[in-house]
User: Which sequence fits this backbone?
């Protein structure tokens, strides 16, 4: 269900920001950004900081690879908004055909063994967290994924297991392809800060 | 937060919403969110329940991943 206060903003500052950024984008500001501006003192600062660190902080994973992970978490959680948004950003850092292949079936896509092994771990983390074991982590490490890479990827998956859920509960509007592209340009460059 | 991570039931209508967000948020209904909004009397109240449940589900997964990675790392030294 959409909450009216998120749509319009809950302060003069957020209402101005929503209008200004919409004007700059020449598109409706996506709901993910409206939520980021809303009731920020509740958890917004901390969640925003974690998202920025996971998606744009120092990591052996590229921005494109992390956006692909986010898109796949969206897919595993049946969240159309995140699939569209983060695929659109991923292709700014990776070949489009590679992103499409990974979204269709990452098990057979021409991605690195390390990325594939990490995605296996993230999928189980997302779908069956209670069954995730040391052995699952050892399997990823044995494929050449470093401990830091696995931690970084897990942070991406944790953040997007949060975001996909409130995106669904709050009934995010699905942008048009053109709107996704406009937001993707900005998000690839600026991130989530 | 706990409920969305599989913890014990809480009062309704918050329980139905938190549980659904944890299990399969794409199946959350407008009625579930509306019931919480009505019970709490504000958009902010409903938002806090939604966000708390979402964060709870995310943190359960984060904890599971970190425990698995640390367990694997300990074993390899």
Assistant:
């Amino acid at each position: 269900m959409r909450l009216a206060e998120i749509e319009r903003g809950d302060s003069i500052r957020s209402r101005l920001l929503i209008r200004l950024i919409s004007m700059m984008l020449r598109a409706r500001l996506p709901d993910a950004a409206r939520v980021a501006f809303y009731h920020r003192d509740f958890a917004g600062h901390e969640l925003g900081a974690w998202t920025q660190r996971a998606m744009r902080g120092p990591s052996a994973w590229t921005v494109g690879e992390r956006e692909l992970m986010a898109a796949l978490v969206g897919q595993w959680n049946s969240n159309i908004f995140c699939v569209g948004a983060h695929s659109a950003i991923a292709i700014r850092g990776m070949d489009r055909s590679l992103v499409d292949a990974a979204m269709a079936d990452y098990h057979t896509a021409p991605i690195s063994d390390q990325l594939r092994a990490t995605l296996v771990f993230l999928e189980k983390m997302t779908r069956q967290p209670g069954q995730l074991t040391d052995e699952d982590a050892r399997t990823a490490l044995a494929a050449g994924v470093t401990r830091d890479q696995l931690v970084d990827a897990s942070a991406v998956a944790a953040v997007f297991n949060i975001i996909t859920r409130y995106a669904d509960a709050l009934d995010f509007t699905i942008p048009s392809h053109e709107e996704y592209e406009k937001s993707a340009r900005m998000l690839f460059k600026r991130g989530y800060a | 937060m706990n409920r969305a991570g599989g913890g014990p039931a809480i009062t309704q209508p918050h329980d139905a919403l938190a549980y659904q967000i944890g299990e399969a948020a794409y199946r959350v209904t407008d009625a579930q969110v509306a019931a919480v909004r009505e019970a709490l009397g504000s958009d902010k109240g409903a938002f806090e329940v939604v966000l708390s449940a979402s964060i709870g589900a995310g943190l359960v997964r984060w904890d599971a991943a970190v425990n698995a990675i640390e367990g694997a790392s300990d074993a390899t030294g």
Notes: The radius of gyration of chain B is 15 Å. Chain B touches chain A at residues 4, 6, 17, 21-22, 24-26, 28-30, 32-34, 37, 43-44, 46-48, 50-55, 57-62, 64-69, 71-73, 75-76 (CB under 8 Å). Chain B has a mean pLDDT of 90. Residues 48 and 54 of chain B are 10 Å apart (CA to CA).
